[in-house]
Amino acid sequence: MSTPDRLIESTRELLWERGYVGTSPRAIQQRAGAGQGSMYHHFSGKPDLALAAITRTAEEMRAGVEEILGGPGTAVERVSAYLRREREVLRGCPIGRLTQDPDVMADPALRRPVEETFAWLRDRLAEVLAEGRDLGELDAGLDPGATAATIVAVLQGGYVLARAAGTPEPFHQAVEGVLALLSHP
Amino acid sequence: MSTPDRLIESTRELLWERGYVGTSPRAIQQRAGAGQGSMYHHFSGKPDLALAAITRTAEEMRAGVEEILGGPGTAVERVSAYLRREREVLRGCPIGRLTQDPDVMADPALRRPVEETFAWLRDRLAEVLAEGRDLGELDAGLDPGATAATIVAVLQGGYVLARAAGTPEPFHQAVEGVLALLSHP
DNA sequence: GTCTATAGTGTGATAGAC
DNA sequence: GTCTATCACACTATAGAC
Questions:
Q1: What does the CA dihedral B72, B74, B75, B81 come to, rounded to 10 degrees?
Q2: N or C: which terminal CB in chain A sees fewer CB atoms within 10 Å?
């Protein structure tokens, strides 16, 4: 792995664990096994590195979601598979957590990938839900856009509950709760 | 307002806006109009002040919730009122955001009020939902615990979506989405 | 490309005068 | 109780040698 790649990977991990404010260039360098000069040679500074890290994380997340939502199965099956997919629940969502970082949200360049990822995710889920509704798999009165927002919110909020509780259990409860509401009627 | 009170209020605001890592004693003092000596006279340091601030916020939140959930109306009416209550959506949840702060979660004293607040909230909502189910207002097969987790997660995740989008709209969509699922069958 | 040296600022806290 | 002075350290970045 090249030095720039190692720096980006270090930044990704630290942004996930400690957020943007809590991540220092020094910590990034140490984790990557790179010196200061090296880091500032490849990147203009902390924001530049963070942009590379966030962009890469957003791309990976999108690909992972599309693998499930664009795969085989009925609409409800695909949504269920997405909700029940294995996750490192207590680590939280690497994109969602950036949302709480004022310095990220204040920088348009850093904010864009966060905004776009969630917009895409909601749209993609809404498409699948609309498909399920049109095929009679879901209630005819179901609002795909609102329900998609609910589902994404359950995941993001599930992470919050799990971290508060110190266990993944409330995350899984929240997921099963919304699936029961979705499938039951 | 006394100096200790002003310091606590400053800390509450800054924890909400910038989180624990992003909040410096200096910023707290400046916002409170207090000097360093004054701050360290009344509090032993940043963690001590944060504990006072978090405790106060948790107490207020609990009282606000109980006012609605313990008020008049059917179970669904009270849950709807709680979900639709006016909120400063883009500011996020002052307790939920602490969940993303590794230094808060690493300190058992700071973590406890966060953990207890969410545990209480889920239990309280589950009670109301069980009541609604037992009175035939909600589906007989509804799981109160899981559904309560779902509802709290929708709120917490709604904040995340709203901040990502830069507008409160997805928060309201998520809320209406879950209410539709809850009331429809 | 990578290194070390250095700078300027902020952090979190203590000391001791008033 | 509140003030100013001071501390040791970390942060983010630049300079210039190698």
A1: -60
A2: N
Is B18 near strand C, with its CB below 7 A from some atom of it?
Answer: no
Domain ranges of chain B: 51-183
Q: Two tokens at B70?
A: 């313990």
Per-residue pLDDT averaged across B82-102, rounded?
A: 98
SS (H, E, C) chain A: CCHHHHHHHHHHHHHHHHCCCCCCHHHHHHHHCCCHHHHHHHCCCHHHHHHHHHHHHHHHHHHHHHHHHCCCCCHHHHHHHHHHCCCCHHHCCCCHHHHHCHHHHCCHHHHHHHHHHHHHHHHHHHHHHHHHHHCCCCCCCCCHHHHHHHHHHHHHHHHHHHHHHCCCHHHHHHHHHHHHHHHCC
Mean pLDDT by 10 residues, chain A (185 residues): 96 98 97 96 97 98 98 98 98 98 98 98 98 97 98 99 98 98 83
Q: Quick check: A117 CB within 7 A of strand D?
A: no
- Interface test with chain B among A152, A182, A184, by most B beta carbons within 10 Å: A152
CB atoms within 10 A of CB B145: 18
Around Cβ B176, how many Cβ atoms within 10 Å?
19
Q: How many angstroms away from the CA of B184 is the closest CA of chain A?
A: 8
Quote the distance between the C-alpha of residue B142 and its chain's center: 25
- In Å, how far are A15, A108, B90, B150 from A102, measured between CA atoms? 13, 11, 12, 27
Cα torsion B35, B37, B41, B42 to 10°: value is 20
| 8 Å CB contact of B148 and A177 | yes
d(CA B55, CA B57): 5
- B39 contacts: CB under 8 Å, gap ≥ 6: B7, B25, B28, B29, B32, B49
Give chain A's radius of gyration (CA, Å). Answer: 19
DSSP class of residue B96?
G
For B10-36, the pLDDT digits (tens) are 999 999 999 999 999 999 999 999 999
A39 by Cβ neighbours in 10 Å (0-12 / 13-18 / 19+) ranks as buried
The token pair at A86 is 């294995």
CATH of the domain spanning B51-183: 1.10.357.10
